[in-house]
Amino acid sequence: MVTMNNNGCTGQLLGPFKANEELYNKIIADAAYPVLYINHLGIQTDIRNFVYINGNKYEIGKTGIYEVGNTEITSIYFESDTDDNSIIDYSITCKEEEK
């Protein structure tokens, strides 16, 4: 499930998520405006799971939280299935001329 803030450029994606499921596509499909890229992610999920961001592998540490910002994110997926307590908070950069 995707929820968008009323400004149309921030939102939240709620789990569960399947292994290797491309989540970028879910975010852009439900965005209020056309998306150039995701510029910030805050991920809460199972510890020791791995997330792939733009093809790079990152381990979710002992806090169960991973955050990345100030970058152009065009791909995100998990290595393993996650439960329904998993959450991805995000900010997107919209195509200004169509906003």
Verbal overview:
- The model has no long low-confidence stretch (mean pLDDT 87).
- The protein has one helix and eight strands; from the N terminus they run ββαββββββ.
- It has one helix at 24-29, and strands at residues 2-4, 10-14, 35-44, 50-53, 56-59, 65-73, 76-78, 87-94.
- With 99 residues, it is mainly β.
- Strands 1-2-8-3-6 form a five-stranded antiparallel β-sheet. It has a three-stranded antiparallel β-sheet with strand order 5-4-7, with no helix packed on it.
Overall 3D form: globular
Determine the fraction of residues in helical runs and give it as a percent range. under 10%
CATH architecture: Sandwich
Instruction: Output the CATH class name.
Output: Mainly Beta
**What does the average pLDDT come to?**
87
Structural class: mainly beta
**Topology, number of strands:** 8
The fraction of residues assigned to DSSP E strands is: over 45%
Low-confidence stretches: none
Q: Strand-and-helix sequence, N→C?
A: EEHEEEEEE
CATH topology: Jelly Rolls
The total tally of domains equals: 1
First CA to last CA: what distance? 23 Å
Largest sheet descriptor: 5 strands, antiparallel
Using the CA coordinates, give the radius of gyration: 13 Å
Based on the model shown, name its key terms.
8 strands; 99 residues; Jelly Rolls; three-stranded antiparallel beta sheet; five-stranded antiparallel beta sheet; mainly beta; 1 helix; globular; 46% strand; single chain
Briefly summarize what is shown.
This protein is mostly beta strands and 99 residues long. It has one helix at 24-29; strands spanning 2-4, 10-14, 35-44, 50-53, 56-59, 65-73, 76-78, 87-94.
